TrEMBL record:
Record-annotated membrane-spanning stretches: 31-48, 60-76, 82-100
Name listed for the protein in its UniProt record: YlaH-like protein
Keywords per UniProt: Membrane, Transmembrane, Transmembrane helix
Record InterPro entries: YlaH (IPR025620)
Pfam family, one: YlaH
Length: 108
């Protein structure tokens, strides 16, 4: 799917001898859209989902719209730190979820 591939932003210092870090960065650049798509799904379910189970067509529509957003974010990721910002958002939402859980248990 060449239309999903965007310009790589990482150029290894020694292209003939790739380290593990270089290989990972090249892989992350190649699969930028899919990484952002998975991060968007995690952010949605951690922060915005009121119900975990939705009807199948609503779930399918949600995933299609999230993928369209991932395409836009992948284009922006060439110049902006979108993947890093989504990782920070996931970390904050996990911290909020962990801190809210004990409070909910005490009030019940």
């Amino acid at each position: 799917m060449e239309w999903l591939e965007l310009a790589s932003t990482y150029a290894p210092a020694a292209p003939d001898q790739l380290s593990a870090y270089d290989s990972f960065r090249l892989w992350a650049d190649h699969n930028r859209t899919w990484i952002i798509f998975v991060q968007l799904i995690i952010v949605y379910y951690l922060g915005f989902a009121t119900r975990w189970r939705m009807p199948i067509l609503k779930t399918l529509l949600l995933y299609v719209l999230l993928f369209m957003g991932a395409l836009i974010f992948a284009i922006l990721d060439v110049q902006l730190p979108v993947k890093s910002a989504l990782l920070v958002a996931i970390a904050i939402l996990v911290i909020v979820k962990v801190r809210i859980k004990p409070g909910e248990r005490e009030s019940k």
